[in-house]
Amino acid sequence: MIESVQEIQSKRIERIGTHSHIRGLGLNESGEARNAASEGMVGQKNARKAAGLIIEMVKEGKIAGRGILLAGEPGTGKTAIAMGIAHGLGAEAAFTSIAGSEIYSHEMSKTEALTQSIRRSIAVRIKEETEMIEGEVVEIQIDRPATGSGSKVGKLTLKTTDMETVYDLGSKMIDALTKEKVTSGDVITIDKATGKISRLGRSFTRSKDFEVMGSNVKFVQCPEGELQKRREVVHTVNLHEIDVINSRSQGFMALFSGDTGEIKPEVREQINIKVAEWREEGKAEIVPGVLFIDEVHMLDIECFSFLNQSMESDLSPILIMASNRGITKIRGTDQESPHGIPIDLLDRLLIIPTVPYSKEEIHQILKIRCDEEDVEMSAEGLDVLTKMGVDTSLRYAIQMITSSALVCAQRKGSDVQPQDIAKVYSLFVDVQRSTEFLKEYTDSFMFSERQDVQMKDSE
Fold it and tell me: What is the separation of C-alpha 253 from the centre of its chain, rounded to a whole number of angstroms?
């Protein structure tokens, strides 16, 4: 009996984040916000323009020891602007994003958690010179012992446009060349200190040779000048990584374990002294990044005092905070303050306000999210979602996109129609309808504070 074999194809699952459509701030060359949706950003023109100025000041190093507060009601794009700033600073800039509640842990103190986040946001570019051998492979000769045992020896002929040299190879170099699949006609580099071989591509002189090659083969020019060259290599690490490497017995492997624990202040002081020496000698460059603290009102008075002091340090990143609170109590005290932040810290901050989105801007944002989530939305369905975003909230309307698409798929439709959204709207309630439900059935719920207040009033 022959059993049929069914081939099961593995499906790649792609996660789509809340702000995965953000590519930047959407500013033109003069720093003005573009009118149309650009780089995923819609509306908030003044806030985006202010964030663009912050990026310029960060790049020029003129905003050390200061902070920015993004203040606005929920769903007005505060986190999106922070993500746009991160994209604007580039890949090399250290950008650390945390929530205000993340620092509360039994494993380490609050100030230690903040210190680690601050030092993650400060990058160090370490420069070092290394000797490299770069050339085109002319010939590789490998001699294997006739007995089958013993070390392999060989010769490697490299050339540039000006010279040609033959190098003797040991067994380790032969294994490295074999691993990289280096053949004659390849352009390679060899690090003399580590012996690492890097294959840059095929030489243009071999481009017309009759040989089988894939479409991804890269052709490069034959190197010029000397075979041996001195090259400056730049390594970018953050201060927290240096702290972990120097405070743990397993060295850099501790970075992969995730359990960094508390780091002694003495270790950090020695690292700061060493980094300062490298700066004086020109071997290293400090690149202050950005520490973004979302829901900053969740921090308590001790954390605010620590941040106030750390902003005065020479090794201080740019501090960007976001809050959706009005005048509320500072956590850990009975005092009220704007945004739940002490007045002395607020005085140090540049405050960027965000305003509610208009109906047209909500329509643009929902259209962008439909494209990001790969949902075919009809024009009528998009109008219904827009009205829903105006009447309830933008976040609720965005959450309706994927669920409506699933309902559309169940009825085998080609695009999402208003009836699909209406079905999902009847299944999932928004905050306003949930509040009305609670008011109507207050007596049926346990431990209702509103019910207790009514009983006290009646007494």
Answer: 22
